[in-house]
Fold this sequence. Notes:
Layout (H helix, E strand, L loop, with lengths): L23 H5 L13 E3 L1 H5 L4 E8 L9 E2 L6 E10 L2 E15 L6 E15 L11 E4 L2 E3 H12 L34 H12 L4
Parallel strand pairs: 6-7
Antiparallel strand pairs: 1-8, 2-4, 3-5, 4-5, 5-6, 7-8
The site of one zinc ion (ZN) has 7 residues, from loops.
Amino acid sequence: MAPVEPPVASSAEGLPQPEDHAGPDVRRGQMDASRPDRRPFRVQVAALRKQNGTTRDEHRSGPIADLGAVSVTVPAAEDVTCDLTLTSFPGGITVTGQVRAPWVGECRRCGGSVEGTAMAEVREHYAPKEGKVGDEEAYPLVGDEIDLEPLARDAVLLGLPLAPLCDADCQGLCPTCGANRNTDTCACEAPLDPRWAALDTLRDEGPPT
Length: 209
Ligand SMILES: [Zn+2]
Ligand SMILES: [Zn+2]
């Protein structure tokens, strides 16, 4: 006796799939020769750490796999972009700035496709994990390298909408027949509220005016 759901939004089938031709730059692998490991979010911070208080801007972007929430996804072919400022302090590196990424998803009312850009302001620390007094809140500083990817991933997840709408005025779907009320009308749209039906009856039976 399970209620039958209207045929919408209950599976990932409706999600737009990236086209094969998307993201040629990602696949061609033409990365800067100085970063042969092709990990765009790894940053060398040895020079920064030589003098506390040194600041450097870092603009990094690249794809991050499997980035999404319940009803929204950052497409695999799209880049996550970081505009960050790194500052050294005696315990490590402070990272501030903005992380953003495009997302696609399904409208929570009508199941239609929705897209947008997640943006998050960050202010985080990177610190060495060795030693007794490790900074529990910090991302790891390993050797003289930090990896901005986990920071960017966390920031984007915070910036993604939990339940996106295609439009603030989205009319959703008819709960009876599943018609999309933004584009279609259906026979069940006439209100069959029993209270109105009772009023109609009273009116019919009342004296003519
Ligand atoms: Zn909608
Ligand atoms: Zn209907």
